[in-house]
């Protein structure tokens, strides 16, 4: 398979649960990118959107075949970087912990706590790789976060500015006790895919921000005794409809 040359990509979008292709992407070409870390979640689809070049990658695969702990985060970020992306928006389904972060709310978080384990968290994990320490005090690129917030405003989509994303291992949802602990730790949201993606983006010096789509109240935070997976996907579908307008405004 011939390897792609870096192209000018204005923005890359990594779609999470419920976002497996990017609606409105025109003249799309598919790129299968080889990486030193193995295969990415799938082809990267590059096309025109709002007059700009947008790259799209479905984090879980286009048929949602990869659970969060088996996503090859390193290959995904490397492939986007190799194609020439410099700015990445990670779209992530989350559970809401904070009372104002209920289903269908969109949050642009500003902090992360990582509870995942057993994932490759750094490009330094490879044999012979140079050891590189990154500053991660602010895990998201503040200028991109601000641009996303402003774009949401122009697109008339309500979003919450800031919040702490707690990244759990999945694929199961959490217990009430785990969520109670995360709340005490200061988490406002819980999701399974925010890390190590954000840290790997920083290692590659990519600008990275997260659009967190709330699918449900996290365990013990809502009225229901159980969380319905069907309802999660229904809320996600509704929240996901707001992503293209935000991205369109971001590109203008
Ligand atoms: N927990 C973890 N990840 C999630 C949740 C949740 O409640 N909802 C959507 N993604």
How would you describe what is shown here?
InterPro entries: MTAP, Nucleoside_phosphorylase_d, Nucleoside_phosphorylase_sf, Purine_phosphorylase-2_CS. Keywords: Glycosyltransferase, Purine salvage, Transferase. Homotrimer. Helices cover 25% and strands 24% of the residues. It has helices at residues 73-83, 142-154, 176-185, 197-203, 229-240, 243-251, and strands at residues 11-15, 26-31, 44-49, 52-58, 87-96, 106-108, 111-114, 160-161, 164-167, 189-191, 207-217. Strands 1, 2, 3, 4, 5, 6, 7, 8, 9, 10 and 11 form an 11-stranded mixed beta sheet that branches. Helix 3 links the parallel strand 9 (164-167) and strand 10 (189-191). Helix 2 (142-154) crosses helix 6. The longest helix is centred in the middle third of the chain and has 13 residues, at 142-154. It is globular. The chain starts with 10 loop residues before the first strand and ends with a helix.
Brief write-up:
This protein is of the alpha/beta class and 252 residues long. It has helices at residues 73-83, 142-154, 176-185, 197-203, 229-240, 243-251; strands spanning 11-15, 26-31, 44-49, 52-58, 87-96, 106-108, 111-114, 160-161, 164-167, 189-191, 207-217.
What is the fold's blueprint, element by element?
Layout: E1 11-15, E2 26-31, E3 44-49, E4 52-58, H1 73-83, E5 87-96, E6 106-108, E7 111-114, H2 142-154, E8 160-161, E9 164-167, H3 176-185, E10 189-191, H4 197-203, E11 207-217, H5 229-240, H6 243-251
Parallel strand pairs: 1-4, 1-5, 5-11, 6-8, 7-9, 9-10
Antiparallel strand pairs: 2-3, 3-4, 5-10, 6-11
Helix pairs in contact: 2-6
The protein binds hypoxanthine (HPA).
Hypoxanthine is lined by residues 93-95, 168, 173-174, 190-192, 215-216, 218, 232.
């Amino acid at each position: 398979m011939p390897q792609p040359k870096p192209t000018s990509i204005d923005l890359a979008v990594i779609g999470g649960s419920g976002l497996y292709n990017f609606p409105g992407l025109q003249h799309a070409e598919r790129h299968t990118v080889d990486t030193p870390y193995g295969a990415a979640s799938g082809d990267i689809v590059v096309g025109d959107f709002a007059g700009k070049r947008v790259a799209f990658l479905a984090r879980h695969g286009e048929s949602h075949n990869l659970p969060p702990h088996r996503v090859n985060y390193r290959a995904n970020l490397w492939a986007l970087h190799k194609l020439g992306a410099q700015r990445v928006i990670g779209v992530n389904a989350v559970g809401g912990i904070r009372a104002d972060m209920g289903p269908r709310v969109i949050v642009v978080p500003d902090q992360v706590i990582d509870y995942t384990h057993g994932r490759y968290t750094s490009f330094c994990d490879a044999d012979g790789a140079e050891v590189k320490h990154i500053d991660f005090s602010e895990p998201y690129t503040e200028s991109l976060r601000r641009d996303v917030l402003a774009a949401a405003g122009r697109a008339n989509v309500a979003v919450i500015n800031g919040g702490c994303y707690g990244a759990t291992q999945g694929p199961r949802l959490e217990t009430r006790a785990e969520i109670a602990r995360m709340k005490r730790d200061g988490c406002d949201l819980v999701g399974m895919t925010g890390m190590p993606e954000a840290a790997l983006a920083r290692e590659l010096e990519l600008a990275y921000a997260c659009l967190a789509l709330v699918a449900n109240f996290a365990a013990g935070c809502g009225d229901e005794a159980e969380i319905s997976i069907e309802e999660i996907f229904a809320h996600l579908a509704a929240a996901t409809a707001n992503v293209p307008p935000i991205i369109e405004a971001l590109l203008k």
